[in-house]
C-alpha cells in the first residue's frame, strides 16, 4: 500500500521557475525548476517535472527527472519512470526496477536512529548498483603533495584538501580480497570511482596514476552496504 502524502504547495506542469526554493511542509513539482532547493519538508517530483538543482530535504520522491545531487534526512524514493543524474545521500534509499540512477549513493544512519536501508531492484538502467546483498565502494581521487596516510574520509578535512588538490581522471583503482577476488575500475573526469558487486570480506585498494604515489587503503565489507573511501 502506497503511503499517502498531504501536499501543501504545488508547481504545475506549465510553470517554469528559476531561483531558490525553501519550504517546511510538502511540495510537489510537475513543471521545470532550476536553482537551489533547501527544505525541512518533503519534495514530490511528478512525472512531467524536470529539475536542475541540488536538493536538500527531509524526504524526496522522484517520478520525474533530476539533474543534481540529493541529500535527504530520511528517505529517497525513485519509482518508475523516475530518473536521477547525480549522487544520493540518505538513511533510506528505495529504487524500483526500471528507474534510472546515474551517480553514486551513500547510506548513513538517520539522525536519532541506528538503521540504514538500501533497497534497490537490479535493472540494466541502473549504473553501478545491482544485488543489494553485495557491497559497493566509491569515492574521489585527488592529486597533490602526499598527506598523512594518503586517504581522508572526514568531510571537513577532505574539503580542505580539495582546495589544494585536483581530481585525477583515468586513475586505475584495483581492489583485491583474498587470493581469488579482484575488481578494477578507473576514475572519471571528476576523479570519482566506484567498485560494485563486492562480496563479504576485507578488500585492499590500490590507486595508481602516472606521476603520483600509489594510494592504498583497506575496506571491510560486511553483509553488503555502501562504503566511501577517498584518496587525497
Give a brief description:
The protein has 232 residues and is mainly beta.
Work out the helix count: 1
Order of H and E elements: EEEEEEEEEEEEEEEEHEEEEEEE
Spatial separation of the terminal alpha carbons: 46 Å
Radius of gyration: 19 Å
Could you name the ranges where pLDDT drops below 50 across 5 or more consecutive residues?
1-8, 121-132, 146-150
Structural class: mainly beta
Mean of pLDDT = 78
- Broad shape: elongated
How helix-rich are the residues, as a percent range?
A: under 10%
Q: Give the tally of structural domains.
A: 2
Report on the structure:
Strands 1, 2, 3, 4, 5, 6, 7, 8, 9, 10, 11, 12, 13 and 14 form a 14-stranded parallel β-sheet that branches. The protein has a four-stranded antiparallel β-sheet with strand order 19-18-21-22, with no helix packed on it. The protein has one helix and 23 strands. It is mostly beta strands and 232 residues long. 3% of the residues lie in helices and 52% in strands. It starts with 8 loop residues before the first strand and ends with a strand. Residues 1-8, 121-132 and 146-150 have low confidence and may be disordered. The chain folds into two domains: 9-120, no CATH class; 135-228, Sandwich (Immunoglobulin-like). A hairpin with a 6-residue loop joins β21 and β22.
Amino acid at each position: 500500500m502506497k503511503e499517502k502524502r498531504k501536499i501543501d504547495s504545488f508547481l504545475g506542469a506549465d510553470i517554469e521557475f528559476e531561483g531558490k526554493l525553501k519550504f517546511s511542509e510538502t511540495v510537489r513539482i510537475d513543471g521545470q525548476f532550476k536553482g537551489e532547493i533547501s527544505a525541512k519538508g518533503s519534495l514530490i517530483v511528478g512525472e512531467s517535472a524536470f529539475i536542475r538543482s541540488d536538493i536538500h530535504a527531509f524526504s524526496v520522491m522522484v517520478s520525474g527527472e533530476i539533474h543534481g545531487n540529493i541529500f535527504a534526512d530520511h528517505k529517497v524514493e525513485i519509482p518508475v519512470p523516475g530518473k536521477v543524474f547525480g549522487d544520493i545521500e540518505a538513511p533510506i534509499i528505495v529504487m524500483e526496477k526500471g528507474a534510472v540512477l546515474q551517480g553514486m549513493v551513500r547510506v548513513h544512519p538517520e539522525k536519532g536512529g541506528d538503521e540504514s536501508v538500501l533497497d534497490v531492484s537490479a535493472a540494466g538502467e541502473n549504473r553501478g548498483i545491482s544485488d543489494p546483498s553485495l557491497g559497493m565502494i566509491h569515492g574521489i581521487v585527488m592529486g597533490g603533495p602526499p598527506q598523512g596516510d594518503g586517504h581522508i574520509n572526514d568531510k571537513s578535512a577532505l574539503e580542505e584538501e580539495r582546495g589544494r588538490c585536483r581530481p585525477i581522471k583515468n586513475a586505475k583503482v584495483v581492489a583485491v580480497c583474498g587470493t581469488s577476488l579482484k575488481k578494477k575500475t578507473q576514475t572519471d573526469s571528476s576523479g570519482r570511482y566506484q567498485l560494485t558487486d563486492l562480496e563479504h570480506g576485507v578488500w585492499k585498494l590500490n590507486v595508481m596514476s602516472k606521476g603520483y604515489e600509489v594510494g592504498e587503503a583497506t575496506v571491510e565489507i560486511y553483509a553488503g552496504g555502501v562504503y566511501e573511501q577517498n584518496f587525497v
